[in-house]
């Protein structure tokens, strides 16, 4: 389980974000903090893997919290700091730039819904798992590219789907491809999701057009090439 600390000055918002996190498999909320001082204490005591951190805290800027956590980790031998996802209503470019410079893995602008946070958490979980697999190994360029692709997260889809497309079905098709260990055909996706092959093909084509999945052709001895789909890595 990936341990999460939710840090937000608004008790109601922190509760909502906690419920969001707990709906995502593989994540567990270790605690909540409502000030910079509380966040620093909670990081030291709970040792979370990930912190959902607001910028506007009553006693300090949340970005200063990140800097202090990183500085403390640098001064401690073998101490690994948590990762941070900024969750804030701050939209100024200076805040976004500073968050990037501090190495935050994502930046979510309030207000946002469950689906937006789930996307970032799912991408983070994949990144966390890949880093664990590569631990104590030497990464080649393909490994580095894959890690940065996961850090960027999945490509965003338009908020309005074309006629005849269902958002829940699109999400299920997308999840099926992303969770697969190898590329998949439309027939395989259809069987896994529980839809017809033409329907799966239609959704896969839509995802491919928006860069969410990658299409490659597998050529056999005779006949037309088979379309195979895998999760996009960039």
Automatic annotation (TrEMBL):
Keywords of this entry: Activator, Cytoplasm, DNA-binding, Phosphoprotein, Transcription, Transcription regulation, Two-component regulatory system
UniProt key word Transcription: yes
The keyword Phosphoprotein is annotated on this UniProt entry: yes
Signal peptide start-end: none
Domain of life: Bacteria
Entry-linked Gene3D superfamilies: 3.40.50.2300, Winged helix-like DNA-binding domain superfamily/Winged helix DNA-binding domain
Location of 4-aspartylphosphate modifications: 54
Response regulatory domain boundaries: 3-125
SUPFAM superfamilies associated with the record: CheY-like (SSF52172), Winged helix' DNA-binding domain (SSF46785)
Pfam families per the UniProt record, alphabetical: HTH_IclR (PF09339), Response_reg (PF00072)
InterPro entries xref list: 2C-system_Tx_regulators, CheY-like_superfamily, Sig_transdc_resp-reg_cit/mal, Sig_transdc_resp-reg_receiver, Tscrpt_reg_IclR_N, WH-like_DNA-bd_sf, WH_DNA-bd_sf
Subcellular locations according to the entry: Cytoplasm
Protein name per its UniProtKB record: Transcriptional regulatory protein
Organism listed in the record: Actinoallomurus vinaceus
């Amino acid at each position: 389980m990936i341990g999460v600390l939710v840090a937000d000055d608004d008790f109601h918002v922190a509760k909502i974000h906690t419920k969001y996190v707990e709906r995502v498999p593989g994540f567990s909320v270790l605690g909540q903090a409502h000030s910079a001082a509380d966040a620093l204490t909670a990081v030291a005591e709970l040792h979370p893997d990930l912190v959902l951190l607001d910028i506007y805290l009553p006693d300090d800027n949340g970005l200063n919290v990140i800097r202090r956590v990183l500085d403390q980790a640098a001064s401690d031998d073998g101490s690994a700091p948590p990762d941070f996802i900024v969750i804030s209503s701050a939209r100024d470019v200076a805040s976004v730039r500073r968050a990037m410079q501090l190495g935050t893995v994502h930046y979510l602008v309030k207000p946002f819904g469950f689906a937006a946070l789930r996307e970032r958490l799912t991408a983070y979980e994949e990144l966390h798992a890949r880093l664990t697999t590569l631990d104590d190994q030497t990464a080649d360029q393909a490994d580095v590219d894959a890690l940065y692709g996961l850090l960027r997260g999945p490509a965003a889809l338009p908020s309005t789907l074309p006629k005849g497309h269902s958002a829940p079905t699109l999400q299920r098709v997308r999840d099926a491809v992303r969770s697969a260990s190898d590329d998949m055909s439309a027939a395989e996706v259809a069987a896994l999701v529980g839809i017809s092959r033409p329907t799966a093909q239609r959704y896969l084509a839509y995802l491919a057009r928006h860069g969410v999945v990658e299409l490659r052709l597998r050529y056999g001895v005779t006949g037309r090439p088979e379309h195979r789909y895998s999760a996009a890595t960039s």
